[in-house]
């Protein structure tokens, strides 16, 4: 298995897979510590597609996991015949894009639930077939950092629950209703953040708490408004 991403969620997934006897062929991230001593590390910047040859050479089972990964898979990686799976912090297709911006809008728009989704990777952004999801409610007083933390925990749970099926080639599309209409949440949404300042949920939606350092685009947008 190859893992692509960054941070604690990636590290936990790598360690979990290795502990259960799944070979970790390569870990692609910006920090060597993400490999958790479970396999070789490849330093990867913003463009993982520039390393397509390394991924093809390293892969033993054809499986690539994407966790906490802002990199977009495009050619030539998509044409290598690998099975690419992304664990997304958000319910698809309603919360496509950057999780930090998706959580912001989920709270602002009064969404009643959030969660994590395992989906196949295709040429779009968070548009591949949904294989599994884990949902949880958003309470009327929940703040950004609370929803984000539950989303990260849900990502870890989805990965651990679905790892055996993916490894065995038994992962199938989930028979679950769509979370809502498709919506993409990216950095351009933050240009309109000032329009929400008088919204009753604004304070809750922008309370980043300990995630300020992990949502730099949102933190910078809020700094400009302060």
From TrEMBL:
Per the UniProt entry, the Enzyme Commission number(s) are 2.1.2.2
Write down the chemical reaction(s) this protein catalyses. N(1)-(5-phospho-beta-D-ribosyl)glycinamide + (6R)-10-formyltetrahydrofolate = N(2)-formyl-N(1)-(5-phospho-beta-D-ribosyl)glycinamide + (6S)-5,6,7,8-tetrahydrofolate + H(+)
Q: Pfam families under this entry?
A: Formyl_trans_N (PF00551)
- Claim: Transmembrane helix is one of the keywords in the record: no
UniProt pathway annotation:
Purine metabolism; IMP biosynthesis via de novo pathway; N(2)-formyl-N(1)-(5-phospho-D-ribosyl)glycinamide from N(1)-(5-phospho-D-ribosyl)glycinamide (10-formyl THF route): step 1/1
Domain (Formyl transferase N-terminal) ranges:
75-157
Q: What class of enzyme is it?
A: transferase
Q: Which UniProt keywords apply?
A: Purine biosynthesis, Transferase
- Does the keyword section mention Ribosomal protein? no
Q: Describe the family membership recorded for this protein in Swiss-Prot or TrEMBL.
A: Belongs to the GART family.
PANTHER family documented for this protein: PHOSPHORIBOSYLGLYCINAMIDE FORMYLTRANSFERASE
Under what name is this protein listed?
phosphoribosylglycinamide formyltransferase 1
Q: Could you tell me which species this protein originates from?
A: Streptomyces antimicrobicus
Q: What is the lineage of its organism?
A: Bacteria, Bacillati, Actinomycetota, Actinomycetes, Kitasatosporales
């Amino acid at each position: 298995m190859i893992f692509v991403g960054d941070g604690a969620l990636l590290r936990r997934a790598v360690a979990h897979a290795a502990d259960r006897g799944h070979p970790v062929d390569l870990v692609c991230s910006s920090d060597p510590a993400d490999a958790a001593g479970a396999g070789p590390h490849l330093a990867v910047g913003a463009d993982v597609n520039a390393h397509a040859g390394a991924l093809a050479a390293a892969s033993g089972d054809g499986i690539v996991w994407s966790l906490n990964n802002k990199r977009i898979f495009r050619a030539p990686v998509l044409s290598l015949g690998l099975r690419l799976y992304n664990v997304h912090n958000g319910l698809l297709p309603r919360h496509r894009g950057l999780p930090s911006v998706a959580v912001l809008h989920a709270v602002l728009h009064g969404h009643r639930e959030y969660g994590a989704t395992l989906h196949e990777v295709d040429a779009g952004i968070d548009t591949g077939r949904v294989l599994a999801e884990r949902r949880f409610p958003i309470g009327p007083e929940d703040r950004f950092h609370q929803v984000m933390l539950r989303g990260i925990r849900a990502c870890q749970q989805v990965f651990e629950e679905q790892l055996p099926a993916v490894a065995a080639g038994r992962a199938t599309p989930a028979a679950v209703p769509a979370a809502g209409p498709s919506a993409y949440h990216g950095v351009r949404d933050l240009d309109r953040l000032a329009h929400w300042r008088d919204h009753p949920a604004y304070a809750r939606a922008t309370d980043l708490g300990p995630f300020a350092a992990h949502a730099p685009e949102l933190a910078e947008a809020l700094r400009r408004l302060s």
